[in-house]
Amino acid sequence: MKKVFYSLLIFLLLPLFAQSPKRPQFLANQFIPEEIKTFFQFYPDIKYTVFFDDKVFDWKIDMTADLFFERTKKPKGQKSVTLYWAGGRLLPKEKLPNKENYWILQYDYE
Is 15 helix (H, G, I), strand (E, B) or coil? Predict the structure, then answer.
């Protein structure tokens, strides 16, 4: 009976030890922080793709917008950029090591 109990306990606890404790696992966009979701509402005409990049441990945001030369005419194409959230700074990957040198774009007015 003890063998069965301990086998069951190990089986149930094994997934907890299989994941790295310092890197959270984000399985769906429902885990995107509220600050990022709010930012998306500021610019509804931009298409966003978001996922958590484990290599830099930050949110990677791909943005695509229509390219207009005159607002009264049809778009002439699209422009895309990939930025990282960087605590609200929206920076390219190469600027992440110096993110403290940049301002946060979104903050509370109190």
Answer: helix
Handedness of CA 62, 64, 69, 72 (dihedral sign): negative
What is the pTM assigned to this prediction? 0.66
The set of residues, in sequence order, having a beta carbon less than 8 Å from that of 29 and lying 6+ positions away, is 50
The model's pLDDT over 63-97, given as tens digits with 9 standing for 90+, comes to: 998 887 777 777 778 889 999 999 999 999 999 99
The dihedral over CA atoms of 74, 77, 83, 89, expressed in degrees to the nearest 10, equals -30
- Distance, in Å, from the CA atom of 87 to the CA atom of 67, rounded to the nearest integer, reads 28
Q: Half-sphere exposure of residue 18, counting CA atoms within 13 Å on the CB side?
A: 7
Residue 6, SS3?
helix
Instruction: Name the one residue in this structure whose structure tokens are 């830099």.
Output: 56
Cα–Cα dist 65/59, whole Å: 19
